[in-house]
Every structure is written in C-alpha cells, then in structure tokens.
Amino acid sequence: MSKFGMNVKFTAKEGQRDALAQILLGAAAVAEGVPDCEKYIISVSDTEPDVIWVYEIWSNAEAHQASLDQEASKASIRQAMPLIAGVESCQIRPVGGKGL
Amino acid sequence: MSKFGMNVKFTAKEGQRDALAQILLGAAAVAEGVPDCEKYIISVSDTEPDVIWVYEIWSNAEAHQASLDQEASKASIRQAMPLIAGVESCQIRPVGGKGL
Question: B46 and A93: CB-CB below 8 Å?
Fold first, then answer.
C-alpha cells in the first residue's frame, strides 16, 4: 500500500500566525501517539510572514482519513478555523528519498 | 541555529515526470552521505500528473547553500533542467512536530 502525504499551506489572519502554529503543534503532539502518522512537521516562512506549512506523511490514506474523524482533530480544526485566512492543500504520494 | 527547509514543486515537461523523479532520487541518494541534510523526500501527485514535490530539511542554511556548490549537485541540475517546465520554490523554517 502506498504511503499518503499532505503538503498544506495555511495563511493565517494578520497577527495570528504564532497562535495558529501553537494549535498545529498541539495537533502534532497528538499525532505522536498515532503510529500510522509518520510525519507531521510544522514550518513557518521567513519570506511570507502569515504563512505556515504542514507536511504530513501517513502509512496509508485510510489512516489519514480516520484521523480526521477523531474528536481531537475536530477540536483542533474548530480552534484553528477563526485564525485562518486561506488554505492550499496538495495531496502527495511519497516515492523515496532521505528521511522518509 | 535554526533548521532550514525547502518545499519545492517541480512541474515536469509532459511525459518526463518519472525521468525527473529518477534524477531527484539520485540526488537524494547523494544526500544520504551528507549529515547536515536531514530530509530530502521525493513525492508525486496523483491529481497533477506532471508534478513532483521535493521536501528538504537541512541542519542550517549554510549547509544547504554549500550543497549547491558541490559538483554532484551541479551535475543533477544539468541533467534535470531539460525535463523541467516550471519550479515553485518556498523557503521554510521548521519549528516542530512529529518526525522532524
């Protein structure tokens, strides 16, 4: 079964980037306990001050979908929504490389 | 010192995605021997057939810059250039998460 990934660019409302990053880091902390979640990495941009990138790799697509149905995920999304101005989300399929 | 990342979207010329992916996987194999390169992950897109994503994390920005000056990197770039229709490159600064 193929691994499954998401490469997501969040644009926070002005001044809300760091608050949004904290919520996403909280979601990453929950992901520590989910074996099928292999990576959930939060990055900021030094060139786009409102932008946060989340890079997720899951052992399969079903595990990712199942995570969205968890109450902890729904709570994070509810917390995050008011801070978000935009989302661009790309589904990816990792094929190899270092650190995969 | 902050970690340094690049999130790069390559669009291959039509029919050239898999050939370009092989070149990038070769660059990732070289990166295996570079301790300051922590991740160099190649992904494709099932929704955009010509797209390849490369996700790089380096222990610092200087190590990334130094890698570009290596002959192996220059050779990969020369090989890849004729296969590439477009590149969108975002510099990122990883701040935390799972699998970082």
Answer: yes
